[in-house]
Amino acid sequence: RTALTSNGDFLRMLGQSSLSLGGRLLNATDSPISIARSVVNILGGGQFVSTTPEALVQTTGGSLTLAGLASIPVEGGTLNFTTGSFLQMSSPDPEAMASLTVDGGLLHSSGTPISGQNHFLDIGSNAHVTSTGADPAVVLVNSPLTIAGVGSFTTEEGTASSPFGNFLNICCTNSMTLTSPLLLATDSPLTVAGALVSVFGGGQLISTTTDSLVKLVGGVHEIGSGTFSGEIEIGPQVFTMPASLLDLRGITTDAAGLGTDPVLQTGGTVFEANGATVNLAGSGNAISIDTALLAAAAPIVKLINSTLNTSADGDPATGAMHLFRSAVTSLGPVFNLDNSVLTVQSGPLLVLTGGSNLAVNGDFASLINGSRITVVNGPLIFVDGINASGTPSTLTVTGGVVNFGGTGGNQVIVNNAIAPTAVLSGLPVNVGGGGSAIAIGPSPIKNPALGTVSINGVLAGPGPHTGSLIQATNGGQVSITAPAP
Q1: What is the pTM of this model?
Q2: Which residues pair with 35 in a beta bridge?
Q3: What is the pLDDT of residues 2-48, one digit of tens each?
Q4: pLDDT score at 80
Q5: d(CA 244, CA 193)
Q6: What is the 3-class SS of the chain, one letter each residue?
Q7: What percent of the chain has pLDDT over 90?
């Protein structure tokens, strides 16, 4: 019950230092904690090992405030950015990795409001985190978390600034390996300027759990206000923040021009909301997979008694989920809704470009117990283009477009002014030039008595239709097997 204030880091490790703990690093009850830099900062070849099966840091009540400011003189002006992370790691030497190994989780907070002004878990160059505990790396119970950083560049002519701050930021020849989920937040509203998970530049996130990697239970969450489509230059720095839920960006490509970096590996659902409302903001996507390889063993998005609203300011060309030069396999469904609502407020639900390949072994979407997917302005699926290696963007689904179930009353509602060129198995589609093709089997809507698919208010069927459910252009390929029951 003692206040704790630090104008720097709570723990800083430099050079070839090492530390081994058999207990918690910090256990605070009803204590206001204020740290300007990081709770844990490992720089250079520091090695930190914790053998306790409990969380490295536990807070009950009180508060945790991570907030500071740093300024760096650069050519033409001053680069300013807010500080305040839970974990920060990096090393300039690939032969001397910064390392953190814990037998438990990283943080368990109950009844503790938390705020940070930089990436919350920031794993930089030549760093590695290993957690072998059964509990999620971060557990929040009745602990609201706000991540709101600001980067700015000041010259004689004025200041340009941009918000930032990811929950997990992994960059540049580094990795995080877990035997558990990454985040479980129960009745803990998240307000995050950037992405929940961002892995790029050679980074990798591996979890062997079969549970959901990120799970939000209860609460209203506001995520992605600082995300944007494209790049923003602030002085000498170039900022890229394309997605709010999941941002995966690899580097290497194969002969087909597709990413080969397994940026994310996990055995369960990637993102789950249960009894929660998630509102996304910014001009980026909800999910962006760029030059990467992903094998999804479970739904990428799972909603139970929840609402997910993508940003009304999102890029309409790339929609809610965008794959670019990426190869993704999914056991299906990709989207799994149970008594839930998913509203795509800008562009399609799914966009494939740059020769991307999404192979779904099963149904594309599952809706049960009165669930609804609404696409406000765009097709449900858009597949476009052939990359420089001659590889066409391709969607392959062995099941149906949607599988309805439960108590019925499910809906897929799509609105757009894309005139259909054909109606295939009752679904209006638009096939553009360049060798584009769409093939759909006899039963794309499974259990039609339990739900409806409509385009501009007209139910799937012979029509007439004024909009399209699926669009393929510039060589894009779509094959939906949809076998008869």
Answers
A1: 0.95
A2: 6, 66
A3: 899 999 999 999 988 999 999 999 999 999 999 999 999 999 899 99
A4: 82
A5: 8
A6: CCCEEECCCCEEECCCCEEEECCCCEEEECCEEEECCEEEEEECCCEEEECCCCCCEEEECCEEEECEEEEEEECCEEEEEEECEEEEEECCCCCCCEEEEECCCCEEEECCCEEECCCCEEECCCEEEEECCCCCCEEEECCCEEECEEEEEEECCEEEEEEECCCEEEECCCEEEECCCCEEEECCCEEECCCCEEEECCCEEEECCCCCCEEEECCEEEECCCCCCCEEEECCEEEECCEEEEEEECCCECCCCCECCCCEEECCCCEEEECCEEEECCCCEEEEEECCEEEECCCCEEEECCEEECCCCCCCCCCCEEEECCEEEECCCCEEEECCEEEECCCCCEEEECCCEEEECCCCEEEECCCEEEECCCCCEEEECECCCCCECEEEECCCCEEEECCCCEEEEECCCCCCCEEECCEEEEECCCCCEEEECCCCEECHHHEEEEECCEECCCCCCCCCCEEEECCCEEEECCCCC
A7: 83
Arithmetic mean of pLDDT, 354-370: 98
- Distance between CA atoms of residues 475 and 387, nearest Å: 10
Q: Please provide the average confidence, as pLDDT, over all residues in the chain.
A: 93
